[in-house]
Structure formats: C-alpha cells, structure tokens
User: Which sequence fits this backbone?
C-alpha cells in the first residue's frame, strides 16, 4: 500500500495542507516544519505524485523541444540539433526546469505528439527547432495560444512568434563577400535543402552579395536527386565557377566528394565555404572554411526567451539575433596571390 500525504501529516502531527505546501516549498511554512515533514517522508518512503502536482500547479516547469520530421539519414545525423538540444538542456538545468523531446516520423505524428504533451499538461509550451512552410504544428500552437519560441524565422505569424535566430541573409552575404575578397567572381550556391526558410534567406544574401559586387548570381543548384548530380557536373564544366557556397558543413563534405569525383581539387580548382562550423569542418583535410552560427548560444537564448514569455504572456513578441563568426580553414583559395 502506497504512502499518502495524510500518512505523512499524521506522522508529523500537522495538517495534510502543510505537507502539500512543503512539497511546493511554500514560504508560509517554517524551515523547522519543512525539515520535520521531509524527514517523515524519508522515514515512511513517501514518493510525491508528480502528475497530480502538475495538474494542481499553474506551471509544470518542463519545456517541449520540437524536432523536425526526420525524413533523411543526413538530417538524423546532423550535429546541429544535438548541439542545440545539449545547450538547451544545460540552460534548462540552470533555470530549474526540464526538457522533453517531441518528435515524429511524419508531420501528422509530430502534431499528435505535441497535442498530447500539451493536453496532458506535461509541458508548459514548446521551443520549435525548425521552420517549415504551411506547418500544421505551428498552426496548432498559434490557434490554441500555446506558449512557444522558435529557433528560426517563420514564414507567417511574424507578430505572434517569439524567435531566436541568426541573420541568415547576412550569413549568405558574408560567405559571398569573403569569396569575393579572396578574388572569386564566379560563385555558385549549392544546397540539398531548398524548402526551409534558412535556405531562402542565405540564398537571398548570396544574391545580394553578388549584386553588391556587380557580379552575376547563378540560380541555386540543388543536389538532391541523381539528375541533380548530372546537372551540377554539367554546370561546373560549362560555367567553371571558382567557388561554391554549401548550405551547411555536412552537405559540404558531400559536395567536396562530388567535386573530387568530377575531377576538381578543393581548393586548388574550386573553393568551398559553408555554414555552422560543426564537427564536420575538421573530419577530413582540407578542413572546411565555415561560418559559425553559435548553436550553443541559439539554444540557451531560446530557453531564456521562452521562460520570459511564459512569465509575461502579454509581452510583445520579439526576434533575438545571435551573431555569427567566420572561421577560416583550408577550403578557400586566395586567388589574389
């Protein structure tokens, strides 16, 4: 038979409400009484019913982290999400809250998991780790006034969304300008992701960087299907770009491999620059020149902003920009030398 609050109260000689307040560390209960109650709990083996407490309290002190639908092997292996979640977990621990993961194999399954977590009051709200166009999860959060913060910039609901992000247009511009400063003029933008908002923003920044330098921007070159590989090979031979901007470090490794198979050396023939400054930049030589998006700060700030929003739900939603840093390694050739 399990021990109840009434059993603890009887052992100490106090009212059950005193035990309940002690569990919540209520200031109205003296330190001496709290000590007696806690010793009685230990003696009797009382285990608090966390679910019942959550239902009684306004907040459950748990944040749901919503992962994107993991549709490809590359996305499953992307260290960006692990780094973000690790940082969020560290910050949550500092703030005396916990983190719970919401995931799904499909968008519908992800939505159902998010709905269940919130309906059962297992979380106070969510931090979205991705941005998709026409996203049913985001629609649900907005329609039901669920507290949330997003890492990234949404396609809609700009005034209703609290966001933590890099300036992805500036990232794309910075990568382009770095290549131009090294003497490159024929610069291509290659990607395996052409639907998420950060791709569009970075590509727009590339276009602006080319325009600012009176250079011709190429259309984005996807590298997703077998036909794309053939098209990129033809493009490289016809246009002879001297540099490529890759959408992230993990994809940059694939791009460098593809360039090598096509007979191009990196950086001697074609330079490569990418984004994230993840572990993939230093797995193989040449080490990849990359723009550090400061994933750790993204994750920690997202937790801080969510908790601020939870405390002041009527506060104006804002977009917090995390600065980036260019990390020069070995994949960009200085053609001015």
Assistant:
């Amino acid at each position: 038979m399990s021990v109840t609050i009434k059993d603890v109260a009887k052992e100490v000689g106090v009212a059950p409400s005193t035990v309940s307040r002690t569990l919540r560390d209520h200031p109205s209960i003296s330190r001496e009484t709290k000590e007696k109650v806690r010793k009685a709990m230990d003696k009797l083996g009382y285990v608090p019913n966390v679910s019942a407490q959550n239902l009684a309290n306004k907040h459950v002190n748990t944040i749901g982290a919503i992962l994107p639908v993991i549709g490809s092997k590359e996305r499953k292996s992307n260290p960006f999400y692990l780094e973000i979640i690790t940082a969020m977990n560290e910050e949550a621990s500092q703030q005396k809250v916990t983190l719970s993961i919401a995931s799904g194999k499909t968008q519908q399954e992800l939505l159902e998991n998010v709905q269940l977590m919130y309906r059962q009051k297992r979380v106070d709200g969510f931090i979205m780790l991705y941005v998709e166009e026409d996203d049913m999860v985001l629609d649900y959060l907005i329609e039901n006034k669920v507290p949330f913060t997003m890492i990234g910039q949404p396609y809609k609901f700009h005034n209703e969304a609290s966001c933590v992000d890099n300036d992805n247009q500036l990232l794309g511009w910075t990568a382009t300008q770095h290549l131009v400063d090294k003497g490159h003029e024929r610069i291509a933008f290659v990607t395996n992701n052409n639907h998420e908002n950060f791709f569009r923003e970075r590509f727009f920044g590339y276009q602006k960087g080319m325009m600012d330098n009176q250079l011709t921007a190429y259309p984005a070159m996807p590298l997703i299907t077998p036909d794309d590989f053939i098209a990129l090979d033809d493009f490289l031979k016809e246009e002879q770009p001297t540099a490529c901007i890759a959408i992230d470090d993990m994809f940059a490794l694939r791009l460098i491999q593809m360039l090598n198979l096509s007979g191009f050396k990196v950086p001697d023939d074609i330079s490569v620059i990418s984004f994230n400054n993840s572990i993939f930049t230093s797995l193989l030589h040449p080490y990849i020149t990359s723009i550090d998006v400061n994933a750790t700060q993204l994750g920690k700030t997202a937790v801080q902003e969510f908790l601020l929003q939870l405390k002041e739900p009527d506060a104006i939603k804002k977009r917090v920009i995390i600065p980036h840093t260019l990390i020069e390694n070995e994949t960009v050739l200085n053609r001015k030398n």
The chain has 13 helices and twelve strands. Residues 295-311 form the longest helix (17 residues).
